[in-house]
């Protein structure tokens, strides 16, 4: 716990096995098609790979919400998926590397503004 939402998300997503590492992003690209055609793999992927990572991210947002960094009415279910979704698209669809700079840009221009602006 770095004491800030931005710091915690950078630490997790840019640390070992984070989204800025080549292997997790390459694995994701390799299994995306199989996830839609192999029900058993899909269940295992969600339970063993995705669920623990989402739980960590949800905990980060919940702690930030307790500190007052995140609006009480913020949709944490959506927010926890924004950063990994944009990183996956950036890597698998656009073919660009996901590095710490890209993660910081998504945080600064998408995630952090979303948690401070009122819902229309």
What can you see in these coordinates?
By secondary structure, the chain is mainly α. The protein has one domain (5-116): Orthogonal Bundle (Tetracycline Repressor, domain 2). It is 73% helix and 0% strand. It has helices at residues 5-13, 22-37, 39-66, 76-93, 100-116. Helix 1 packs antiparallel against helix 3 (39-66), helix 3 (39-66) crosses helix 4 (76-93) and helix 4 packs antiparallel against helix 5 (100-116).
Task: Describe how the helices and strands are arranged.
Blueprint: H1 5-13, H2 22-37, H3 39-66, H4 76-93, H5 100-116
Helix pairs in contact: 1-3, 1-5, 2-3, 2-4, 3-4, 4-5
Percent strand equals: under 5%
Per CATH, the superfamily is: Tetracycline Repressor, domain 2
Q: What's the end-to-end separation, in Å? A: 31 Å
CATH domain class: Mainly Alpha
Overall 3D geometry?
A: globular
Count of the domains: 1
- CATH names the topology as Tetracycline Repressor, domain 2
Low confidence ranges: none
